[in-house]
Design goal:
Rossmann fold, 11 helices, globular
């Protein structure tokens, strides 16, 4: 475990791959940690210096009481790369990580070589859904989300064939702090990135699983329409986590894009 002080908290991170290669930073989804990217490591570290981190209140990064905001989570990411002395990098985020990526690209585009937005959205209404999740977390803890979230993240067929992956994700959910879930849920509930999307001027890849119900293809199409230098790829046979369900296609899609920038 590597932890470093950034933006007032201890952030857990892992940096691996060739020391002289361009940096590719990965940002995790709600209720996971940087282990959600394990299947990307062999392919990505062959060509890039890979930086993975646990977002605030997730994994082994320090948890603080909520509410959080997307601005706070972007400041965590910038604080981490500054603390590590990284000047420019590629950035990839999935779901909540993709929401962080949108604001990061709009506000700090000069720091990014490219951005990849995976299974994410610029708005997540209605607020009542997030208020209900906050109440559930506060009353029953994050373990109450193990089955409903893994059911949404992965297609039924994949879950049946790969129970060990479901168990691994379930363990990530259960170890997420209540403050981390509640704080992040507030940030997602209150987010409205639609007005900032046209301000993203760097090369942007948008990736979405064809069967994603939480951040569906329609949400990805909004991102594609609003972001000028963007490309949309829909991955068949995947729900919310194509990086896990369709690892080979996902890895090739991402690497082909960032190699060109």
């Amino acid at each position: 475990m590597n932890r470093i002080k950034a933006n007032g908290i201890e952030i857990n991170y892992r940096l691996e791959g060739p020391a002289d290669a361009p940096v590719l930073m990965l940002s995790n989804s709600l209720l996971t940690d940087y282990g959600m990217w394990d299947l990307q490591v062999p392919a990505f570290t062959a060509r890039y210096r890979l930086l993975r981190y646990d977002s605030r209140g997730h994994g082994d990064t320090q948890s603080t009481p909520g509410p959080y905001s997307m601005s706070m989570l972007v400041a965590d990411a910038i604080g981490l790369v500054d603390a590590l002395g990284i000047r420019k990098l590629h950035f990839l985020g999935l779901s909540k990580g993709g929401m962080i990526a949108q604001l990061l690209a709009a506000r700090h585009g000069e720091r990014l070589l490219s951005v990849t937005l995976c299974d994410t959205a610029c708005q997540m209404p209605p607020a009542s859904v997030w208020d209900d999740r906050i109440k559930l977390a506060q009353s029953k803890g994050t373990s109450a989300f193990m089955q409903p979230m893994t059911d949404r993240w992965l297609t039924q067929g994949y879950r049946e064939r790969n129970p060990e992956v479901v168990a691994k994700l379930g363990a990530m959910i259960a170890r997420t702090s209540v403050d981390g879930l509640v704080g992040s849920a507030c940030a997602i509930r209150d987010m409205d990135h639609l007005p900032i999307l046209q301000g993203i001027k760097i090369p942007t890849l948008i990736v979405v699983g064809e069967q994603d119900v939480g951040t569906p293809v329609a949400a990805a199409e909004v991102l594609r329409r609003e972001i000028g230098q963007s490309k949309l790829v829909v991955i068949e046979g995947a729900a919310h986590m194509p990086n896990i369900e369709q690892t080979g296609i996902f890895n090739t899609t991402v690497l082909d894009f960032i190699d060109s920038h």
